Amino acid sequence: MSDATPEITFRSDVTVELVKSSASDADVLFAARVSTKGEQSLDDVDADASRSQGLINYLMRDRHGSPFEHTSFTFFVRAPIFMWREHMRHRIASYNEESGRYRELEPVFYVPARERNLVQEGKPGAYVFVPGTEEQSILVEEQVKASCTQAYAAYQAMLDAGVAREVARIVLPVTIYSSAYVTMNARALMNFLSLRTKREGSHFPSFPQREIEMVAEKYEAEFERLMPLTYAAFQANGRVAP
């Protein structure tokens, strides 16, 4: 039951926080060297940078991917639900998401920023997105806000009448924000980045929806910071996951 209708918030961003990690280039090195050195593989993880870069680049180039799996990134992400439906198609991560069955969902909704491209040109498989007109931008903003405001009022009305949260939530649009923990290893993360970012030099071009690319860009910044040699090899080899 709600005492008062909370104020509705509209946002045009996503938030990504790295809450825990066990990820370094050294993790890749000892995992790779166990094949030839056994238990002594831990002894030379601090080998000179040129040797380390060479081994990591070899693993990346020839797609020996398993050494990159001995790492872990855990992110706390807040983004609109329609982004989550795309994200969870990647069955290479662990997820725990907030539940609309057990808590009252906050009235925070996504509305595209004015600089977000709005118009699709071309046909499936051969299309681009281009900026909309000023009139289209205003229309999108007005209609999203009106729809979300009406939907949340209906949600509140059902909660106030004693309807269960799991039933009341069915009127909420996919633009409402949800939060989740996402945990993946470096190999899985590179797979995600290869598909959910558009970058020059990628061996396989990708055309992600902008909202999931916003999340991917924040993941990528942490990946580059924690595993610079692996990240450099990823870039140099066409952003193909090993």
TrEMBL record:
<feature type="binding site">
    <location>
        <begin position="86"/>
        <end position="89"/>
    </location>
    <ligand>
        <name>dUMP</name>
    </ligand>
</feature>
<dbReference type="Pfam" id="PF02511">
    <property type="entry name" value="Thy1"/>
</dbReference>
<keyword id="KW-0489">Methyltransferase</keyword>
<feature type="binding site" description="in other chain">
    <location>
        <begin position="97"/>
        <end position="101"/>
    </location>
    <ligand>
        <name>dUMP</name>
    </ligand>
</feature>
<dbReference type="GO" id="GO:0032259">
    <property type="term" value="P:methylation"/>
</dbReference>
<dbReference type="GO" id="GO:0050797">
    <property type="term" value="F:thymidylate synthase (FAD) activity"/>
</dbReference>
<feature type="binding site">
    <location>
        <begin position="89"/>
        <end position="91"/>
    </location>
    <ligand>
        <name>FAD</name>
    </ligand>
</feature>
<feature type="binding site">
    <location>
        <position position="191"/>
    </location>
    <ligand>
        <name>FAD</name>
    </ligand>
</feature>
<keyword id="KW-0545">Nucleotide biosynthesis</keyword>
<dbReference type="InterPro" id="IPR036098">
    <property type="entry name" value="Thymidylate_synthase_ThyX_sf"/>
</dbReference>
<feature type="active site" description="Involved in ionization of N3 of dUMP, leading to its activation">
    <location>
        <position position="196"/>
    </location>
</feature>
<keyword id="KW-0521">NADP</keyword>
<feature type="binding site">
    <location>
        <begin position="185"/>
        <end position="187"/>
    </location>
    <ligand>
        <name>FAD</name>
    </ligand>
</feature>
<comment type="function">
    <text>Catalyzes the reductive methylation of 2'-deoxyuridine-5'-monophosphate (dUMP) to 2'-deoxythymidine-5'-monophosphate (dTMP) while utilizing 5,10-methylenetetrahydrofolate (mTHF) as the methyl donor, and NADPH and FADH(2) as the reductant.</text>
</comment>
<comment type="pathway">
    <text>Pyrimidine metabolism; dTTP biosynthesis.</text>
</comment>
<feature type="binding site">
    <location>
        <position position="97"/>
    </location>
    <ligand>
        <name>FAD</name>
    </ligand>
</feature>
<comment type="similarity">
    <text>Belongs to the thymidylate synthase ThyX family.</text>
</comment>
<keyword id="KW-0274">FAD</keyword>
<protein>
    <recommendedName>
        <fullName>Flavin-dependent thymidylate synthase</fullName>
        <ecNumber>2.1.1.148</ecNumber>
    </recommendedName>
</protein>
<comment type="subunit">
    <text>Homotetramer.</text>
</comment>
<feature type="binding site">
    <location>
        <position position="66"/>
    </location>
    <ligand>
        <name>FAD</name>
    </ligand>
</feature>
<keyword id="KW-0808">Transferase</keyword>
<dbReference type="InterPro" id="IPR003669">
    <property type="entry name" value="Thymidylate_synthase_ThyX"/>
</dbReference>
<keyword id="KW-0285">Flavoprotein</keyword>
<feature type="binding site" description="in other chain">
    <location>
        <position position="169"/>
    </location>
    <ligand>
        <name>dUMP</name>
    </ligand>
</feature>
<feature type="binding site">
    <location>
        <position position="196"/>
    </location>
    <ligand>
        <name>dUMP</name>
    </ligand>
</feature>
